[in-house]
Design goal:
The complex is a heterodimer of chains A (326) and B (338). Helices cover 77% and strands 0% of the residues of chain A. Chain A has 326 residues and is mostly helical. Chain A has a domain at 101-286: MetI-like (MetI-like fold, Orthogonal Bundle), CATH 1.10.3720.10. The chains are: A mainly alpha (326), B alpha/beta (338).
């Protein structure tokens, strides 16, 4: 497969086109599920809007005219989808504001939280994994033991324990909020990010350790050693490069898993991100907001998976572009 | 002239389930520059362990005794940089399964030029030019294209040629070939073997050639060592091994081979099953399966002794039985009836 040949380039283009097409179809299907699920959910948003009071038919008709609750399901869905395609996520029932601008105000916090968590997973998780994979011994066994325990800790427990110890008892970090300005925000987000990342750090550490241990005994590594390469070259070019393949897959999946974890963490640390907005919107039956956030989460998940898929086919030449192992 | 490689009294123990087990005992031979020595034996006889000891590629925890001398330097004492230099310049290993022994995510070009670039600090273009030359030497003429391919895109035979080309890249003085053709089909085998033998002559390299194919050993090697249960049982010129074996085990192996010219009703098999060094009884390891064994054979391990000029055997009856070892065993009653 030479990059220069037009045939290969066409092949790659078709592969990319297929992936992006698949991504769009999945997004469409999930938008339908998201919308449909909320349509079927018990409780009517009208009840919330009227605060439980009985309203005149006129008033109800006015609400329906604004929010289209009286239309058939499919029409509502198409109207909603059409709006989204034009960048309009509808209006929040609770805040009387456009959903788009509500999300816009809060998405930054969530993205920063996930990015910081991903960084922690990559630095600490891979760091521990590589160290204990290459240097078996007491330290490595201890780290793996701690990792196993950490993997079993649910995000909400981690969040509460971390708050109690580092924010309340030791006072090293703020208890809640996002602070003012980027630096203060980073400081405020360290504890939440760590709570969100803890299980993933442990998981990635264990996985990369196992991948390295397996790769280091591979026959081709023996070849590299027999050719008299320095340890660093053998490890870098043959052990880590090959062990990165399974780790990459799982790294992508854990990252996607952390997206849903933000709901819990933002709630515990009172961060004004998408997760806490989702929780309050569900409680208040603010359907347009719930639908929009769910769609954003699903989209992020799918895009992330596609990116991992693409990265995999770049990193592993055996995975031929166009699918399947040859 | 002293030998290029001298192995003297080499014994190896490996930790298996917490206890040390002997896998190699008292292996001694020497190899001159440009000479080929064959190591023949069945699986578990210690051929690979012998070769791995020389490149210091034994599994972790292995205990070795005896000595290995390469060009006057003690190989077993090499550590760190000196060991890396020895591995990168003096010896080169060709493995049995080229597919498992090449990194699947790196290109052929990478594999071929890596040694030159890492150890020799040859610039990339220069190394690639040399790699194409090397590929031409092993009969691959579209080298430019091959350099950009990955191992899984090449056939086994082609990949083994690449492996041979890679081992030539550093112009080693000794090639350790660990069953280089076993994983290949028969036609490819002979092609690869011809290439290897020719290049070895041209480059004037010594070669330690492991195989379980006696014909191949006879064709390629100047001398052959036959191993059984971690010990050498016979060492003599390859040309005479077939007609005049010095150990009942070698003789039994010869008889167990089918011949193209002659039809035999049933191939004589060696009774019993192969044993490893650590589970052999006192005395001669082959005694339980040997049709010439006497009580004295089972009493103590026979010494590896000189029988004639350049001829050694670990059979205490070697001289007495010489010439009779290949006489077919008495046909049993059962076979007469059939």
């Amino acid at each position: 497969m030479s990059a220069a040949s037009p045939k290969a380039a066409l092949h790659t283009l078709r592969f990319l086109g297929g992936r992006i097409g698949g991504l769009l179809v999945t997004l469409l299907a999930s938008s339908f599920v998201v919308f449909g699920a909320l349509y079927l959910a018990p409780g009517s948003p009208i009840t919330f809007l009227t605060h439980g009071r009985s309203m005149t038919p006129d008033a109800i008709a006015q609400i329906n005219e604004q929010y289209h609750f009286d239309e058939p399901f499919l029409l509502q869905y198409v109207r909603w989808l059409g709006g989204i395609l034009q960048g309009d996520f509808g209006r929040s029932i609770l805040y009387k504001d456009s959903v788009g601008s509500l999300l816009g105000q809060r998405i930054g916090t969530t993205v920063a939280l996930i990015a910081l968590s991903a960084l922690l997973v990559a630095l600490i998780g891979l760091g521990i994994g590589i160290f204990s994979g290459l240097k078996p011994g007491i330290a490595s066994s201890a780290l793996m033991g701690v990792s196993t325990a950490a993997m079993a800790v649910p995000t909400f427990v981690a969040a509460v324990v971390l708050t109690l110890v580092f924010a309340v008892e030791l006072g090293w970090f703020p208890v809640f909020g996002v602070g003012e300005g980027p630096v203060d925000m980073l400081y405020h987000l360290i504890l939440p990010a760590f709570a969100l990342a803890l299980a993933s750090i442990a998981f990635v550490a264990r996985l990369s350790q196992a991948a390295i241990r397996q790769e280091i005994t591979a026959d081709h590594v023996q070849t590299a050693i027999s050719r008299g390469f320095p340890y660093g070259v053998v490890v870098r070019r043959h052990v880590l490069r090959n062990a990165s393949l399974p780790v990459l897959t799982v790294l992508g999946l854990t990252l996607a898993g952390m997206i849903s974890g933000t709901v819990v963490v933002e709630q515990v640390f009172q961060l004004n991100g998408l997760g806490s907005l989702l929780v309050s919107s569900v409680q208040q039956k603010d359907f347009p907001v719930v639908q929009a956030i769910c769609l954003v989460y699903v989209a992020a998940f799918i895009v992330l998976n596609t990116v991992i898929d693409l990265a995999y086919s770049v990193l592993d030449p055996r995975v031929s572009v166009g699918g399947g192992k040859s | 002239m002293s030998a290029l490689l001298e192995v003297d009294g080499l014994s190896v123990e490996l930790p298996v389930a917490g206890e040390y087990r002997t896998v190699l005992q008292d292996v001694s031979f020497s190899l001159d520059a440009g000479q080929t020595l064959g190591l023949v034996g069945e699986s578990g006889s210690g051929k690979s362990m012998t070769v791995r000891s020389i490149a210091q590629l034994l599994p972790p925890g292995a205990r070795t005794s005896g000595s290995i001398t390469f060009d006057g330097a003690s190989v077993l004492d090499l550590r760190g940089d000196a060991l890396r230099k020895f591995r990168s310049r003096d010896v080169s290993m060709i493995f049995q399964d080229p597919r498992a022994h090449t990194n699947p995510v790196r290109r052929i070009g990478d594999f071929l030029t890596e040694a030159m670039r890492v150890n020799g600090r040859v610039p990339r273009r220069e190394a690639e030019r040399r790699a194409v030359e090397l590929l031409a030497e092993v009969g691959i003429h579209d080298g430019e294209r091959r350099l950009r391919q990955y191992p899984h895109e090449l056939s086994g035979g082609l990949l083994q040629r690449v492996m041979i080309a890679a081992s030539l890249a550093v112009k080693p003085r000794l090639i350790l070939a660990d069953e280089p053709t076993t994983a290949l089909d028969v036609t490819t085998q002979s092609e690869v073997m011809a290439i290897l033998a020719r290049l070895q002559r041209e480059y004037g390299m010594a070669m330690l050639f492991i195989t379980h194919d006696l014909e191949l050993a006879a064709a390629v090697c100047d001398e052959t060592v036959v191993m059984y249960a971690g010990a050498m049982v016979e060492h003599q010129a390859s040309s005479r091994l077939h007609t005049d074996p010095l150990h009942p085990y070698s003789a039994a192996l010869m008889q167990a081979r089918p011949e193209i010219e002659r039809r035999v009703p049933r191939l004589p098999a060696i009774p019993g099953h192969p044993t490893s060094a650590f589970e052999t009884p006192d005395g001669c390891a082959f005694a339980p399966r040997c049709r010439f064994a006497e009580d004295a054979c089972r009493a103590a391990l026979p010494a590896f002794e000189r029988v004639g000029d350049g001829e050694y055997s670990r059979c205490r009856r070697a001289e007495e039985l010489r010439g009779q070892l290949l006489v077919p065993a008495v046909v049993s009653h059962e076979e007469v009836v059939r």
